[in-house]
């Protein structure tokens, strides 16, 4: 495999890392790059993950975006997914339109909920996901419009809101990481404020600060997001995304 | 029954649940019949797709209960967006699992079912009628999702017999059985009405998830889910869905769309759909 990793490939690997050590749970990626990441994680360091075909089947092996798994290992209609959410055996990666420093995330509506300036999808499963099992977020275009001081409609629950809502809301709440096109973030701080974990190659801490609408916790030494291995690049380019859908989600 | 006979049993002001999911296996022929009717002021409960969009565009809905409204391959539903952004639509936006719980509570004749979903989120802020409940067994405090009682439910299945035993042949039943059980009267449209013996001759008995005790009427509606998917009979008509979205963005184009597809009957709709020039990939 020749050629340096693109930003999209760095992002796919950073998404894959979200599922490291998750074991035998359902990885639910939303979007092309998280989907590449989840399939990559299972094909390499996290072989016990469960993956769906995006409809109602659990598939074995590693298949391309837009294709179907060759071997079906289970039936997972929406009702069973809801059961599995309540059982906690899932880690979802959603794509928020707004996210704040405590990880509150909005996929429902921008502006006043009663009369939004932009109506989005609705809260979907975000409220239940975030209080039942690990959740990560993927932001393909990091900007101060997405990383905001406060979100307009809390769909996915952040750390401050989970704590305030009481022990039942906080018991299974865990926001694992946020991956954007600029860097990787987590909430492993004393008060669970968002922390910069690593910058992608070619990105500076100042770039990220300028594109973020709140103060990030920033360690003195910020790591660089790791490069894909040769095996990972090969899998991304020839098996999982041979058509290059990843570069439509993240350029550069 | 015919679709118009189903609509004749419905009344303005009713709460109507619609099965399927997003832009998948929606009872679109029944929805189109409502669009043609003089029904108004409906409360619609749905994992929403173009069913919700068409009813909003026809001004049939005063209140909407949903977890999302999406066309799947096109994320945002244009009529839903317009209705929400106008501020005129009363809504109850729930977590997807809360919607299931509300239907299941109604099906089981329970006042509510408890769940963690919703805690800490703004679903509780924007739905101030929702209450929490203390567990009598430990210190848990849970959301009490109220039963979502439906006056009527509309679902579309692949096959049914004349008595209301109906079969899904695709990958997912979605929550069609819960919609039927939560309703005082449920109506099934289907691709094909067959004799009962043919149901188990064609597919395993586990596909017979809608049963006649849940169902008040059956309508044969070939291509009745169009333009949503009805696997394995047909997939989503992506080209038509794009045409729908394009038309929804402009009042004149929507008037034309309505005149071409919606103002006459279902037979005229299906004829207009099949007479479109081929515009798919590779078409000249």
Structure description:
The complex is a heterodimer of chains A (252) and B (284). Chain A has helices at residues 7-18, 32-43, 78-87, 126-132, 159-164, 167-171, 205-210, 230-240, 246-249, and strands at residues 26-29, 57-60, 71-75, 90-94, 98-99, 105-106, 109-110, 118-119, 135-139, 175-180, 183-186, 195-199, 223-224. Chain A has 252 residues and is an alpha/beta fold. Chain A has one domain (7-249): Glutaconate Coenzyme A-transferase (3-Layer(aba) Sandwich). Chain A has a 7-stranded mixed beta sheet with strand order 1-4-9-10-11-12-13, with helices on both faces. In chain A, strands 2-3 form a two-stranded antiparallel sheet. In chain A, strands 5-6 form a two-stranded antiparallel ribbon. Chain A is globular and about 45 Å long. Chain A starts with 6 loop residues before the first helix and ends with a helix. Chain B folds into 2 domains: 3-97 and 149-267, Glutaconate Coenzyme A-transferase (3-Layer(aba) Sandwich); 111-146, no CATH class. In chain B, the strands form 2 sheets. In chain B, strands 1, 2, 3, 4, 8, 9, 10 and 11 form an 8-stranded mixed beta sheet that branches. A 3-stranded antiparallel beta sheet of chain B has the order 5-7-6. Chain B is globular. The longest helix of chain B is centred in the middle third of the chain and has 12 residues, at 96-107. With 284 residues, chain B is of the alpha/beta class. Classes of the chains: A alpha/beta (252), B alpha/beta (284). The interface between A and B is large, with 46 and 42 residues.
């Amino acid at each position: 495999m020749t050629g340096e990793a693109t930003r999209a490939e760095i992002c796919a690997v950073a998404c894959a890392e979200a599922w490291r050590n998750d074991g035998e749970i359902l990885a639910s990626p939303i979007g092309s790059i998280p989907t590449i990441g989840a399939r990559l994680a299972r094909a390499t360091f996290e072989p016990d993950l469960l993956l769906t075909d995006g409809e109602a089947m659990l598939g074995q092996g590693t298949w391309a975006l837009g294709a179907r798994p060759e071997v079906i290992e289970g039936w997972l209609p929406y009702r069973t997914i809801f059961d599995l959410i309540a059982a906690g055996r899932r880690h979802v990666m959603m794509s928020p339109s707004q996210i704040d420093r405590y990880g509150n995330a909005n996929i429902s509506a921008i502006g006043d909920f009663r009369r939004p300036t932009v109506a989005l999808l609705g809260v979907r499963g975000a409220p239940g996901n975030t209080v039942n099992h690990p959740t990560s977020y993927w932001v393909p275009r990091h900007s101060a419009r997405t990383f905001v001081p406060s979100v307009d409609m809390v769909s996915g629950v952040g750390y401050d809101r989970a704590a305030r809502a009481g022990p039942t809301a906080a018991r299974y709440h865990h926001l694992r990481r946020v991956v954007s096109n600029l860097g990787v973030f987590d909430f492993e701080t004393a008060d669970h404020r968002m922390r910069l974990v690593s910058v992608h190659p070619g990105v500076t801490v100042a770039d990220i600060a300028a594109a973020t609408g709140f103060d990030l916790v920033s360690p003195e030494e910020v790591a660089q997001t790791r490069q894909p291995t040769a095996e990972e690049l090969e899998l991304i380019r020839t098996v999982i995304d041979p058509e290059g859908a990843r570069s439509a989600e993240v350029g550069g | 029954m015919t679709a118009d006979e189903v609509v004749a049993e419905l009344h303005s002001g009713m709460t109507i649940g619609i099965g399927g999911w997003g832009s998948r296996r929606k009872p679109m022929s029944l929805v189109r019949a409502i669009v043609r009717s003089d029904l108004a002021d409906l409360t619609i409960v749905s994992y929403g797709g173009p069913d919700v969009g068409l009813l909003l565009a026809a001004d049939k809905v005063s209140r909407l209960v949903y977890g999302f409204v999406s066309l799947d391959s096109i994320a945002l539903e244009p009529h839903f967006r317009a209705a929400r952004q106008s501020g005129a639509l009363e809504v109850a936006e729930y977590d997807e699992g809360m919607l299931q719980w509300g239907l299941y509570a109604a099906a089981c004749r329970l006042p509510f079912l408890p769940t963690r979903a919703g805690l800490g989120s703004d679903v509780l802020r924007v739905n101030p009628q929702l209450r929490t409940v203390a567990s009598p067994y430990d210190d848990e405090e849970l959301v009490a999702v109220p039963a979502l009682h439906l006056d009527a439910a509309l679902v579309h299945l692949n096959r049914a017999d004349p008595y209301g035993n109906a079969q899904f042949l695709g990958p997912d039943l979605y929550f069609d059985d819960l919609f039927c059980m939560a309703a005082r009267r449920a109506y099934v449209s289907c691709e094909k009405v067959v004799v009962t013996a043919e149901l188990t001759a064609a597919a395993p008995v586990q596909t017979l998830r809608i049963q006649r005790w849940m169902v008040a009427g059956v309508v044969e509606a070939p291509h009745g889910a169009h333009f949503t998917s009805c696997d394995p009979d047909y997939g989503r008509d992506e080209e038509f869905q794009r045409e729908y979205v394009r038309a929804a963005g402009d009042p004149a184009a929507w008037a034309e769309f309505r005149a071409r597809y919606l103002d006459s009957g279902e037979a005229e709709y299906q004829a207009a759909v099949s007479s479109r020039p081929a515009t798919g990939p590779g078409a000249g």
